[in-house]
Amino acid sequence: MPTYKGLHGQIRSNNFRSALLLIGFPTIIIAAIWAVMIGMNNGVWDEYVQRDFLRVLPIALGAVGIWFLIAFLFHSQMIQYSVHSKPLERKENMRVYNLVENLCMSVGMKTPKIYIMETDALNAFASGLNDKTYAVTLTRGIINTLNDEELEGVIAHELAHIRNKDVKLLIISIIFVGIVGFIMQVAFRSVLYGGHNRRNNKQDGRLMLIILVVSAIAYLLTILFRFALSRKREYMADAGAVEMTKRPDALASALRKISGHSVVEDVRSDDVKGMFIENNPKETQSALSGLSGLFATHPPIQKRIAFLEQV
Fold first, then answer.
1. Which strands sit side by side in the sheet containing 113-117, from one edge to the other?
2. Given 3.30.2310.20, 3.90.180.10, 3.30.2010.10, 3.40.1360.10, which CATH number is that of 86-166+231-310?
3. Active site residue 158
4. Which of 14, 138, 187, 276 would suit a FRET pair with 116, their CA atoms being 20 to 30 Å apart?
5. Residue tagged active-site, from 150, 152, 158, 234
6. Residue 286: which pLDDT band, with cuts at 50, 70 and 90?
């Protein structure tokens, strides 16, 4: 299992990954446009394809850039809206505010905003891209169920995600995955509904086949990029929480209580669920569990508990 490699090392690593994502996702879009155009020209790159490619490329990248900018500016509102959260009132929840503020003071970081999800599920997540947008969101269930030491461990875990710049990495991924996912849906719908009206047109039939193949490849690459955000970040955040609280037993106890009680029913977005402290509600021991683990956003909670017991 991984060991904590230090705050600055983790920040450098995640900043580098963020840069790769910023390059990688637009590259997928550019490659998809290129593949469609060259495919329509029987695999030949000539001056006509080059002219069309250079004409379409700025339009496509401009549209993606505007989409990314809008999502970038309003990501916090979008995420909080998707989980139906609201600001946590200080006067009614001094216990939570004291825990958050004391932890932040202990490591010299600015106190993030605090939100609450009105659900009995036990979960939490961090979000944001900078000091103005950083936030920790807790469920009502986790606040009411955990004792002070356990809740402190969970909050410290989310603060570690903020300190490590994990949240920035995840937000960038979510935005680009959403863009690519939408483009894939449009492509598949064009193939599905266009085929009935133009089935006798060989040129259009070939175009639809090319779009289908390119869409499938682009979707696969998107999946690979999504899971390139290593599950090690959860181990690192657990270790970072221990570094802050000096209580690995408290976080391990919190994870035991969370296990099996983490599902927030109202949240439909898999990308947002990937930000939660726990997102493996149905761990199984079947023959397929190892394969499904390759596509999990989090390591099994029992492995995280075992990791904490070794700290």
1. 85-87, 113-117, 135-139, 124-127
2. 3.30.2010.10
3. yes
4. 14
5. 158
6. very low
